[in-house]
Design a protein that fits this description.
This protein has a single domain, classed as Lipocalin. Helices cover about 25% and strands about 35% of the residues. It contains two helices and ten strands, in the order αβαβββββββββ. Strands 1, 2, 3, 4, 5, 6, 7, 8, 9 and 10 form a ten-stranded antiparallel sheet that branches.
Length: about 180
């Protein structure tokens, strides 16, 4: 009898944990659906994932990355960065780690910066959950540099941003998505 009580208690505990997980997951999916429908969300990235090249490895060898970082996974949680979408326009400032392929100017803009209405904007619901967003946009400081941006928003309100540039190596960012707050930016 005592064993049956213990097993029954454990089963009830697991069942209640599972239902709270599904409830939380449902709420996050609903929040994400609302953000996409309103085209009003922002992303703050915690990690930058540049292509690992010999130059990036050399920077790691001399200790120029933040603690806990590697050449392919750099902690940017203490750096100001954002991506935001409000209606039909997007705005971003993301720190860049990697190599410049060619060209470019020597302005103070070392990050990836854009603010405009994107070209070829596609927003699609993922096969299982989440959303995929793709668009092209010009750099805010240089008309000669263009970006192809791919964003994956997951149902747990995390995100991945991949940016291909005409002048820089490809870089990826991982972060969290939230409701757009006009007072923040």
């Amino acid at each position: 009898m005592k064993n049956i009580l213990i097993v029954g208690s454990i089963m009830i505990a697991f069942a209640s944990c599972g239902s709270s997980y599904h409830s939380s997951n449902y709420e996050q999916n609903k929040a994400l659906d609302e953000m996409i429908a309103n085209k009003a969300f922002q992303i703050e990235s915690n990690w930058a994932e540049p292509q690992v090249t010999s130059a990036m490895q050399q920077l790691a060898n001399v200790g120029l990355y933040p603690p806990g970082s590697t050449p392919g996974n750099i902690d940017i949680s203490s750096h100001a960065n954002f991506f935001k979408m409000e209606n039909d326009s997007v705005k971003a400032y993301l720190p860049f780690y990697g190599e410049r392929q060619f060209g470019g100017n020597y302005s103070s803009n070392v990050g990836i910066v854009f603010e405009d209405i994107p070209k070829d904007l596609h927003i699609e619901k993922g096969k299982k959950s989440g959303y995929e967003i793709r668009f092209n946009i010009n750099d805010a400081k240089s008309n000669s540099e263009n970006y192809q941006v791919y964003i994956k928003l997951f149902s747990n309100l995390t995100s991945t941003i991949i940016i291909n540039s005409t002048q820089r190596t490809t870089i990826q960012y991982r972060g969290k998505v939230s409701q757009f707050d006009s007072e923040t930016y």
